[in-house]
């Protein structure tokens, strides 16, 4: 059972196996109590074994599990040794031990992912081996768009569990967009009262001649957010919130019409958008807007301890600013050249604001237009170009080019594919994705913090559809983000597919509605 995904740096196999029994103990040193709690809970559910607390890492029976810190290892590095003394997982930090615990779960076989033991005796064995492992990137992300379609809190928690099982550690939470505002902001209650519902949305099966139109909405209370952030933290996942400005803001403008360009259109007539695409109704570059969003970000910072805060910045059409006397006056007053520089000023304001509060701004690559704000990091989505330019200018980058890692795109050209998005990103395309473009020098490449896969949900109305689009491709993505792989053309995709056979059984045990290798089932 060493068909591990993502592949570790090295495995040396021995002969023999550790067998977990009713007598097996689980020891966790003082630094790894949290991981110990997580692992005991997960394995008790799956195996029914008590896994009582051990007093030392190894035990006389040689059938226990030990967890401990080894300051000699890198922060997310771990070593897993299974031998006559039992299973010992050591990590440079609790996170490293946690990733080692994920590997242990894979070694125990797919049933180790179940929430209840099966009704028959079975052996829980870990082959004798030594695994040394560490991630290639420190940012291994998944972005989930809960604005286009709201996902309930429990679905988000499940998503975090699935991320952890794949050793992903950054959850980019796309909380606001034209079609919905999903986070409670106490000082601006209309953002959720008005902004979290839209009157109609097109949903339904691809084969329906007329898609069903129905109201859609929902939002997370601040307590829901606290729970999500804490649940993520237990799994060594950082939640990076995204509040999209100055474009993708129609839901906010529908709630507070004064945020829009009131001298160009009647913003009181706007409602939460019920169409997909790029929206012309953007925020007005006024002091009032800045103060309003500072208030939003103040509450956001209280809820999310992450170093990075995402401010969007993508797809902001400049037409209203061109026609707005208020926006033009601002351009003159600031001595700016054009509307691109006005956007840059807008983002720069929040860069300085976040930096003053000990945080860092990250935005989509359009924030390069008109000049990149001083401390800003970039999510490079329109290919690699934005990321390359940012890295060369000394800015940090997360690579997420839509040509490779947009999981809303269909995964097969076949006519039965349920998602009506034109571009095809196959499992193999994702497996051959390389986050660091060869154009970068080693020095510049250090600015590539890592990579993330993005799940935009315009056409994913429920968690089953999100599962279908996300898996199995997220498994390939996880290997790209974690493992040190050869250049794209030399990657052993056939070998990856062989390991996927075991991985599909894990996803089955986890209840993931992945796309079957043979293609969609009739009801998908
Ligand atoms: C572009 S990626 C967008 C999203 C859409 C997505 C659909 C990005 C920063 N903006 O608003 O949902 O394409 O693939």
From TrEMBL:
The active site is at residue 315. PANTHER family: BETA-HEXOSAMINIDASE (PTHR22600), BETA-N-ACETYLHEXOSAMINIDASE (PTHR22600:SF57). Pfam families: Glyco_hydro_20, Glyco_hydro_20b. Residues 137-483 form the Glycoside hydrolase family 20 catalytic domain. The keyword Hydrolase applies. GO terms for cellular component: membrane. It comes from the Bacteria. Its EC number is 3.2.1.52. Belongs to the glycosyl hydrolase 20 family. Coiled coil: none annotated. The lineage of its organism: Bacteria, Bacillati, Actinomycetota, Actinomycetes, Kitasatosporales. Residues 2-134 form the Beta-hexosaminidase bacterial type N-terminal domain. This is beta-N-acetylhexosaminidase. GO terms for biological process: carbohydrate metabolic process; glycosaminoglycan metabolic process. InterPro entries: Beta_hexosaminidase_sua/sub, GH, Glyco_hydro_20_cat, Hex-like_dom2, HEX_bac_N. Keywords: Glycosidase, Hydrolase. SUPFAM superfamilies: (Trans)glycosidases, beta-N-acetylhexosaminidase-like domain. It catalyses: Hydrolysis of terminal non-reducing N-acetyl-D-hexosamine residues in N-acetyl-beta-D-hexosaminides. It comes from Streptomyces afghaniensis 772.
């Amino acid at each position: 059972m060493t068909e591990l995904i993502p592949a570790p740096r090295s495995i040396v196999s021995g002969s023999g196996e550790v067998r977990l029994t009713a007598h097996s103990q689980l020891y966790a040193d003082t630094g790894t109590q949290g991981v110990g709690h997580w692992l005991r809970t997960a394995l008790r559910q799956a195996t029914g074994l008590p896994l009582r607390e051990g007093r030392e890492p190894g035990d006389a029976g040689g059938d226990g599990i030990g967890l401990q810190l080894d300051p000699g290892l890198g922060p997310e590095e771990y070593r897993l040794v299974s031998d006559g003394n039992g299973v010992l997982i050591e990590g440079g930090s609790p996170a490293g031990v946690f990733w080692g615990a994920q590997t242990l779960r894979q070694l125990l076989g797919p049933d180790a992912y179940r929430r209840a033991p099966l009704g028959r005796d079975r052996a829980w064995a870990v082959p004798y081996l030594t695994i040394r492992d560490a991630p290639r990137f420190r940012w291994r992300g998944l972005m989930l768009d809960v604005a286009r379609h709201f996902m309930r809190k429990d679905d988000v928690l499940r998503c975090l569990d699935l991320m952890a099982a794949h050793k992903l550690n950054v959850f980019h939470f796309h909380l606001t967009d034209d079609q919905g505002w999903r986070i409670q902001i106490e000082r601006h209650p209309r953002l959720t009262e008005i902004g979290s519902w839209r009157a109609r949305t097109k949903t339904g099966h691809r084969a329906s001649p007329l898609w069903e139109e129905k109201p859609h909405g929902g939002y997370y209370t601040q307590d829901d957010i606290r729970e999500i952030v804490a649940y993520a933290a237990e799994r060594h996942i950082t939640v990076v919130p995204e509040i999209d400005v100055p474009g993708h803001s129609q839901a906010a403008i529908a709630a507070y019409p004064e945020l829009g360009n009131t001298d160009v259109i009647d913003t009181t007539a706007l409602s939460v958008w019920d169409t997909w695409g790029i929206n012309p109704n953007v925020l007005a570059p006024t002091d009032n807007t800045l103060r309003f969003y500072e208030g939003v970000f103040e509450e956001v910072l209280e809820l999310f301890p992450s170093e990075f805060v995402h401010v969007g910045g993508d797809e902001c059409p400049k037409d209203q600013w061109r026609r707005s006397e208020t926006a033009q006056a601002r351009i003159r007053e600031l001595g700016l050249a054009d509307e691109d520089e006005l956007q840059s000023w807008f983002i720069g304001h929040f860069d300085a604001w976040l930096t003053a509060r000990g945080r860092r701004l990250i935005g989509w690559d359009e924030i390069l237009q008109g000049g990149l704000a001083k401390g800003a990091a970039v999510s490079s989505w329109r290919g690699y170009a934005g990321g390359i330019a940012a890295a060369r200018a000394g800015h940090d980058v997360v690579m997420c080019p839509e040509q490779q890692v947009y999981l809303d795109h269909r995964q097969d050209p076949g006519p039965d594919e349920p998602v009506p998005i034109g571009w095809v990103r196959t499992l193999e395309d994702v497996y051959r994705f390389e986050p660091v473009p060869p154009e970068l020098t080693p020095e510049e490449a250090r600015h590539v913090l890592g990579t993330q896969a993005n799940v935009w949900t315009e056409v994913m109305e429920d968690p089953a559809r999100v599962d279908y689009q996300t898996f199995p491709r997220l498994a390939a993505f996880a290997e790209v983000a974690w493992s040190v792989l050869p250049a794209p053309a030399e990657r052993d995709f056939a070998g990856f597919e062989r390991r996927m056979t075991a991985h599909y059984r894990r996803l089955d045990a986890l209840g993931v509605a992945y796309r079957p290798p043979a293609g969609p089932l009739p009801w998908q």
